[in-house]
Amino acid sequence: MKKIKPMTNQEEITVSTETFCQPDIDLSVWQALTQNQYSHNSLLSFQNDWRTFVNHCIANRLCPLPADVTTVRDFAELTAKERKVSSVRRYTVTISLVHRCHSYKDPARHREVKFLMNRLLQEKSDQAGQATPFHLGHLEALTEKLEKSDRLKDIRDLLIWTLSFEGMLKRSELAALPFDAISTSTVPYLLNVGETPIELSNHASLMIDRWFEISGITDGPLLRRINKHQQLGEKPMDHSSIYRVFRRAADELGMGQQLTFSGQSPRVGASQDLAEAGMSIKEIQHQGRWKSPAMPAQYVGNTQARDEAMAKYKRKLEKE
């Protein structure tokens, strides 16, 4: 946790605890809790992660704050059945942050939770298979097919595939992009992911102009749901919507029976394309904003580098 001074006033703690026992908490409250130490996208992640945890607690009649060790351990184990270990890890980081800001004992730092995370990490690393790569060739074929379409959904989906590939975006990063994540003060445009600016191609910049023109949006979420009547909604896309967009990509390529793309596919495909172009694992790690070289190493088939990075990460978990 960054240098955030925990609450000490008992009345303040009590009032804030009541607020954080609810699933829907305004971003301004998160900003105040974290004392302006985190970016807008980080606050969105905290908000979403905490909502998931609180909803789990409400459904099972458990207390989210302060939560006991068993609650956090069981939540992490249950979540791991459907989410990647990196997502589970992020949930525990958010739980830890909220407890420590309220001066409560941190259940996520208990050895039972640490041992579970260690086991999940090992199990996940032993599982064969990864997301189907989405390569530049796939993107170029989709662009050729759909770039002249006037349908709102075609323009949005093509923009999603392009930004995901060029920015090597995680699904959560893609879903959280606000309108002002695009900086149009330079050409080509910049895509700001958290505090990281990513230079886009001229083609991507033109697609963004077209999306702004046809959607008419001037604020709020950059990428939004579209109903069956081709009407643009106000809410951002969720993970299920993004999954359907990538499932559509395989269908549009006439490969729906052979390929199953997911929100992770562009990161895998871009990593492999960059490695093929001669970029090192470290350079790919930096490009994709990974904290460890383990995942890009796995994506490009460098299992030795992956195993070394995994071992380093596990040692870090044990020390925390």
Automatic annotation (TrEMBL):
Superkingdom per UniProt: Bacteria
Protein name per its UniProtKB record: Integrase
Keywords: DNA recombination, DNA-binding
Pfam families for this protein: Phage_integrase
Record GO biological process: DNA integration; DNA recombination
SUPFAM superfamilies: DNA breaking-rejoining enzymes, lambda integrase-like, N-terminal domain
Positions of the Tyr recombinase domain: 129-312
InterPro entries: DNA_brk_join_enz, Integrase-like_cat_sf, Integrase_catalytic, Integrase_recombinase_N
GO molecular function, one term: DNA binding
